[in-house]
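Dear colleague,

Thank you for sharing your sequence with our group. We've completed the structure prediction you requested, and as agreed, I am returning the results in plain text so they can be pasted directly into your records. Please verify that the sequence below matches your submission; if there's any discrepancy, let me know and we will rerun it promptly.
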Amino acid sequence: MSSVNDVNEETLRTLVDARALAQTVLSLYLDLDPAQFATAPARATEIDSLLGGAHREIESGERPHGERQDLRAALARAREIFGGAQEWAQGARAVALFLSESTDLERLLRLAHPVRAGFVISDAPFIAPLTEPASAGRVCVALADERFARILRGSAQRLTEAVSFGDPVHGRHKQGGWSQARYQRSQVEDAEAHLRHVARTLHDLLRVAPYDRLLIACTGPLWPRVLAKLHADVRALLHPDRLSLDVGDASAEDVVEAAGAALAEEQRAREDALLGELRERHARDGDGRAAVGLGPVLGALVERRVGALLYDTGLQAGGVVCPRCRWMGTEGERCPVDGAPFRRVRASSRTPCRRLLASPPRSSRCESGPSSAPSAESRRRSASEACFRRRAGRVVTGQLRL
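Please find the predicted structure tokens below.
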């Protein structure tokens, strides 16, 4: 049975236009993966966990009394919707619910693709999981000063604004005396609360719509203050270099250019380090920790010993593939695992890697007990899984993990 999808262009336009004057919009995402949440009790447990987390955030977060009251009302309404007969779960892989008392927003959408359960509190609905496929390579860029923040998401080639907000921070005061000192302390406290808001939002986004790399643009003096407030899970994804962009003036194209340059430099450094390690290991004759050439690398892939793979984009080579278990090599007549006749192929270096990534394992992991030797069928399955489970690029040289 096909999954239901309530998301269309008109719905997205409506949500994009829905913006509150304060942080009173509650966005909730509920995972309905049938493998985990097929029954009503399982869904009830997930709902309790989701709404419990939102409740703790609403009550503990630094926010004005009016915002807190609006969010409490939105959360109460969410409990009513999710606590009903749950017709909304039929035919859906996930559900998104957007609520705001101040703007009379109430929208429940059934989704055809799974999403992580989570919530986001902002001045607008958080719609990134509605428009983004669940794929790797996601980039998040945050631009922040002491008053405003913009967060963009996407890839190194294309970024779109996902969240933007500002927090009330007192302006400068020059009257002197004790009142000026108190005013300046209040200004610093307001700015610190804003930076905590930025850090909290980045953590919320990571939970709901995960990203793989985070870059932050801010002034030099602000950089250590922002880093100090990031959650450990967010900090682990942070690019070490600060971007120099103005939160108010930078366009999406400016952000893409700056982020792309930083990520490209990081990728070059990673490749240089891998090449250096490969040369060092290969120079140690016979230590078995590096393989060079198509044949040795394919053998290492089948044996599940590859830790990193490097390649020449122009490689064209012939070889053989087992039609049963997908064992690959450069020559031969029959598969050494199951004895099936090889099929000869002539393709670019992409071909074996596409097979490794695209073909699912034919069985779960096979393990033999201490008193039993693995059967021929177990060996065949293990070999096929060894290929299927490797994440690989194109092959010319390989670095092995022992």
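Summary note from our side: The longest strand covers residues 159-166.

Kind regards,
the structure core
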